[in-house]
Amino acid sequence: MANPRRFTVGDLKELAGMPDLESPKQWRDSLTYLVLDPDEQSVIESSVREEIMTRAWRVSGDNDSAVWERGWGEVALRVETLDKIDPFALSPNYFRGEKIFRLNGRYVRAVSDDAEFLIGLMIREAILAHWLAPYSEVIEFGCGTGLNLFLLANRFPEKRYLGCDWAKPVGSILDRIARATATRVEFCQYNMLTGSGLNGKEFKPGTAICTVHAMEQLHTMWEPFIKDVMRCRPAVCVHLEPFVELYSAENRFDELASMFHQKRKYLVGFIPALREMHERGEVELLECRRVSFGGKFHEAYSIAVWKPL
User: Fold this and answer.
1) Which residues, including other chains, have CB under 8 Å from residue 237's CB and lie 6 or more apart?
2) CB neighbours of residue 62 within 10 Å
């Protein structure tokens, strides 16, 4: 019989390799999951492989914002009808309550539909808050529904936030977040693939930059964005992304995540380039760590933190 466990703040600290993380807000108490036996693991591995190989996946790297205009437009309409917003109102539509997710090198089964999303919220808030706490201004590139800015605004309402995204409906979502949190949250339409949209905008010394599940969409075309980041001279850059280079080549579990990553044409080459920039003295690489948590197919919360020199 599967063994039920509850994901705790202690688990979060161990997962992130950061024992000094402060506790994030727990929006719902639905964090229980089941540890599966080897036979169930094997069955899930086989079904995941089959789905990766046979499903028609949308791939990243196309300079076309139509899918995001539609998806974020639906979220914008939703939040405008609500008297009060929370992370669930800002949840991207690709979170569909999948029960199977990845945790500490194995598949587990959620007891509730929203366990994966809730654990993801804890990871986002705790790690972003840890690294961004000292800075008065925060820019999120590829901010999407504004979920991460909402979490940060609730934690640090005194900060100023700028959300950059290429989909216009994001502007109205951020306006709604600003009203809901009584925080300064502004919008800039920006294309990460081409590095266009900042139009020479200057940022104050001490500004922090972050991305969450955004650079994944750049595939091999991340250099224009990083060049823009370097021009901004941020105090720190924090990324929670899927980094294919952090998977192991020695086990089937990681092989499947890497296969999915490549099938979707997610981010490639950034971590090796960042390490080379560190070796050349162009940046200081403060943290580069795999976070072994994610949906059924891959892990999208690994950490890279750096700053220009």
Assistant:
1) 208, 209, 210, 229, 304, 305, 306, 307
2) 14
Angle at 62 between CA 60 and CA 67, to 5 degrees: 80
**Rounded to the nearest 10 degrees, how much is the dihedral formed by the CA atoms of 225, 298, 293, 167?**
40
Edge-to-edge strand ranges of the sheet holding 208-212? 184-189, 160-165, 137-141, 208-212, 236-241, 302-308, 283-289
Residue 31: name the closest of 108, 92, 126 by CA: 108
158: left (phi over 0), alpha (psi -120 to 50) or beta: alpha
Inform me whether the pLDDT recorded for 116 exceeds 90: yes
Span 1-50, pLDDT tens digits:
567 899 999 999 999 999 999 999 989 989 999 999 999 999 999 999 99
What are the structure tokens assigned to 132, written together? 């961004």
- Cα separation of the two ends of the chain: 54
Residue 112's region, left for phi above 0, alpha for psi from -120 to 50, else beta, is beta
Q: What global pTM score does this model have?
A: 0.95
- Identify the pLDDT of residue 257: 98
Q: How far from the centroid of its chain's Cα atoms is residue 30's Cα?
A: 21
pLDDT at site 1: 54
61: left (phi over 0), alpha (psi -120 to 50) or beta: left
Beta strand residue intervals within the chain, DSSP E: 3-6, 32-35, 100-103, 106-110, 137-141, 160-165, 184-189, 208-212, 236-241, 283-289, 293-294, 302-308
Rounded Cα distance between 11 and 7, Å, is 6
Residues 61, 180: Cα–Cα separation, whole Å: 33
CB-CB contact of 285 with 271 (8 Å): no
| Gyration radius (Cα) of the chain, Å | 19
State the residue for tokens 């999208």.
300
